[in-house]
Structures are given as C-alpha cells and as structure tokens.
Amino acid sequence: MLKRDTIQLLALLSLTVAIPVHAEERLAVIVGTEREAKLSRQDVAQIFLRKRRFWSDGASIVPVNRNAGSAARETFTKQIFAKEIRFLPSYWNRQYFQGVLPPLTLASDEAVRRFVAVEADAIGYVHESFVDDSVRVILLLDAATPPSP
Amino acid sequence: MWIASDAEAAEGQSTAPAEVAEESLFSVDTGIGPLVYRPGRGLQVGRTGLNIGGFATLELQKERGEDWQLSVDGINFLVLLQPIQPLRLFMELEVGNLFQVDLDDGEHESDPTANFQRLYAEYGLSDALNLRFGKFQTPVGEWNLVPAEPFTWTTTEPLELEAFDEHQTGPMLYGSFFPGDGTLSYWLYGQIQDFDSESDEDPADHSAGARLEYSSAGDAWSVGSSFLAATRDDRWGYVGGLDAVWRRGPFELSSEFLHTWGPLDNPVRWDVFVQGVVEVFPSWFLVGRYEHNAPSGGGADLDLGDVGVVWKPRPYVIFKATYRFADHRSEDVFEGFKSSLAVIF
What we know:
- By secondary structure, chain A is α/β, with parallel strands linked by helices.
- Chain A has one domain: Periplasmic binding protein-like II (D-Maltodextrin-Binding Protein, domain 2, 3-Layer(aba) Sandwich), CATH 3.40.190.
- Chain A is 42% helix and 18% strand.
- Chain A is globular, with a radius of gyration of 17 Å.
- Chain A starts with a helix and ends in an 8-residue tail after the last strand.
- Chain B is an all-beta fold.
- Chain B has a single domain, classed as Porin (Beta Barrel), CATH 2.40.160.
- In chain B, 3% of the residues lie in helices and 61% in strands.
- Chain B is built from 2 helices and 20 strands.
- Chain B has helices at 6-9, 16-20, and strands spanning 26-30, 33-38, 42-45, 50-63, 68-81, 87-102, 108-109, 113-126, 129-137, 167-177, 183-191, 206-215, 221-232, 235-248, 251-261, 268-281, 284-295, 302-314, 317-326, 336-344.
- In chain B, strands 4-5-6-8-9-10-11-12-13-14-15-16-17-18-19-20 form a 16-stranded antiparallel beta barrel.
- Chain B is globular and about 60 Å long.
- Chain B starts with 5 loop residues before the first helix and ends with a strand.
- Chains A and B meet through helix 2, helix 3 and helix 4 of A and helix 2 and strand 8 of B.
C-alpha cells in the first residue's frame, strides 16, 4: 500500500517537475524511420520557408509546424529564423500572393510525432522526450543555446 | 523613437504576428473534409487541395493640384488548386474599378471590370526544375514579383515598372539549388504570342527573359539580376537589372537598378531606387524611398522621394500612407498623398 502511494506521489511530483523542465528541453527535428536525410539548421529553415520542397528521392516534403503560441513553436522559430523573425509575416504574405501556403500545424508533440511516423514524406519537431522508435531524429535544437549567426 | 533590438526580436512578442494568420476563424466538418478559413490565408476546402482567398483595397488620395479621391480599388481573388502534390493550378482574378468618388464635388463613378491578372498551371519535377505555363508576373527585379498593394511598403510604385510588361503569357522554367547555406534560384521564361491582345496593357508580341537570384538561408538578404528582351512590331527592346534586399532585426533595405536599350522605344532609359524600412513600434513601420529616373527621348531626369508610414494591426490588415514629392512636375507621375487600407482574406 505504501509502495503504491509512493509511486503515485512520485508520479505526481514528476508531473509538477516536468513542466518547468519541459520548457528548457531540447527540440528534436524528426522524420520517418525510412527517410534517409542529413539536414543542417539552414536546410530546415529552407524547408519551413517552403523554399526547399522536395526530398532527394523526388518526393514532396510535408513540413508540419506546432501550433501558434506553443513553447515548441517559439523555440523552433527563435532557433531557426532568429534574425529574420520580424519579417516573417511579410514573407508569408508575399508567398500567399504567389500561391504558396505556410506549413500545416498540429496541436501537440504527440500529434506531430504520430503524423511524422505515418507520413513518409513529413518533417516536424517535438520535445526530445517525445521521441520514440517510430521516428528518426535528424537535428537537435537547444533552447538555451543561441542560434548560429 | 523606440527601435526594437535584435535581442527583443528574438524574445516572445516577436513571434506573435507570424502566428496570428494561422489561427482559423472557423472550421466546419463536411463530407469532403473540414472547411477551414484562416484570415489572410484563405478558405481551405476539405481534402480537395483547393484554397480560395484574396485581398481588397480601399484608397484615399490627394494628387497635387487635384481633388481628394476615395476609391474601392479592387478585389482580387487568389485561387490555388493542388489536386496532387507536384501539380498546381493558380489564378488571380481581379475585379477592379468598383467605385470612385471625388470628395470635393461628390462626383462618382463605377465601372467594374474583371480580368485574370495571373492564370497558370505548373508541375514540379524537383526543386531544380519546375514547369509553368500561363500568365504570370514578369520576374524582373524583386518588386514586380509581388507588386500588389497589400504586399508592398508604399502606396506608390517605382517608375522602373514602366520599363517592362507586368505580366508574361507563355512557358516558364524555374527552380532552386542550395549551394552553401543559401538558395540560388533561376527563372527562364518567354511570351510566345500576345495572348492578351484585348487587354489595355498592350503586351509585347514576343519576349524572352531570365532571372538569377541568390538568397541567404533565412531570407536575411538576397541579390538578383534580370534580363528581358521583348518585341513589338518586329522592333526589339532590352531590359537589364540588378536588385538586392537586406534584413536585420527591425530594418529592411532594398534597392533595384534597371537599364534599357535597343530600338524599341521604352519610356525608361535607366532607373534606380533605394528603399529603407524600420519597425519603430511593434507593427508600426516607417518607410523612405529615393528614386532616380532617366526617361528616354531626351526628357529631364526625375528625382522622386517617398516617405510613409505602415501600420499592421494584424498581419492581414494593412494601413499605409505615403507622400511622394518630385524635383519637378512630370505629367504622368503621381505626386502627392496616397493612403490605403488593404485586407488580405
């Protein structure tokens, strides 16, 4: 009985501790397990700006963003587009005029991981603790490390 | 004057504007998938690959020596159909001249017209090779790629745009390579016939052009060069140009240079402009542009200055006010105050 109570308490504590730790956690840029790809931070920027639209095997890349306002989205945007953040709205307006829409969005790390696991041409990002065997990590972004110039 | 720093740009508030236009206003489940409308990004029609949106513009202007004018400049519909991934059909339909009123004497007119500003199909084979056929923006310089009112920083346009047709109708090859950390893009295109002879644009009979552009990974800067050869009544004319854009924190600086030559009369001999934009408060921008225009046919060179303010309370709602002054009067050149309210829907 005591053991079960302890486990429940630890589980509760782990939840409360996980919230602040989660915000500092690294982001993992992920693809499907079958996808052979080595991407740099700049490659990822080009993909999420829809400049790079094809994988090397000719398949169309399906980038998936986290929803607006999420911690993951904020970290990703800072890390990938650090110096150009301010002009992103204008960039996407210009792309809209040219018939290019921004990446689709999903509401949770879990949803992104599941989407990337089943959609062979997808690329997304989740907090590192959400990575499992269903996806492959191709880049890690550290929330505490400033982006490269 | 407050000018945001890079550090502030990388902090929380700066990501908000990009994200606002992603929020859906409504989403309705239907038999063909969800109908989702996002302001500034259009209506996504289920799983059909169809997206319908556009923009509308209201203008208030006072040209030097003229009355105040208020006009609903037009409503432009942007329709994208992507039935399968590599195939894209795109259309811009403009419904223009909707309403104009002289605010001083009350005289008004309405003469609605509809025309396809752009209409093309394209097939993407790879990043390096995309095939397009139809009517599209002429890729000379950065400005003419996206010249519509909501997407520019001023309500006035540079005079360089008079040196070439805004659109071409014909085939295009375009694509991108990724040397180093940047993007090298090219466009090869031509107008094989004047398909648009009913239009009042009086397009060239034939043309051939090319553009090459290199941009940094995050679109922080880019440089480009363009060339266009066009003929009317068997007389050829040529346009060559260079352009550059640089962005850092709250600043954007852009410049374009264009030179024309050949037996075809062109209203522009050469033209250069430099434009600066700075975000002084969140969503508030100051804009300044200097342009030097050398017309053909021995007319006096013209120096133009444009100063303006832009407010974007939402990424898809844009207020602009621009004042243009010139070193001397020129009949065909707008001089005075022009403001606009544009909504991207």
